[in-house]
Amino acid sequence: MSPRSARLARLSRSVTFSACHRLHSKSLSDEENLKLFGKCNNPNGHGHNYKVVVTVRGEIDPVSGMVMNLTDLKEYMQEAIMEPLDHKNLDKDVPYFSEVVSTTENVAVFIWDNLQKLLPRGILYKVEVHETEQNVVVYKGEQTIVK
User: Metal-binding among the record's keywords (predicted)?
Assistant: First the structure.
């Protein structure tokens, strides 16, 4: 491959935010919620220090040598993740979660959707949300087909 050929690369950046939530579905009874979510259905909620890793992908610019300027990515992540989620009660402070159960899967979708509005089209590759060291959700924007 000649030096002038386009090279693709992935670039990742992480942030950590703290938030509390309660796993509770309005579609279920209190008993069903308790059975499904256990201690995570505590009426007073519980908290996490979430780690989010955002990965973008694209061609390495021959002039800058970058897929994307990290300063720009940092600013997008601040707006899409930190401002709406950090030190918040997800269920009470984030309108999205008033109708959507605040599982880590849905937090990943929320972050993906927010980033899609800010990043250049087609560059977002993956959002990883680490709820704990053991529990990680990876979302790549896939959707199922409505049946």
Answer: yes
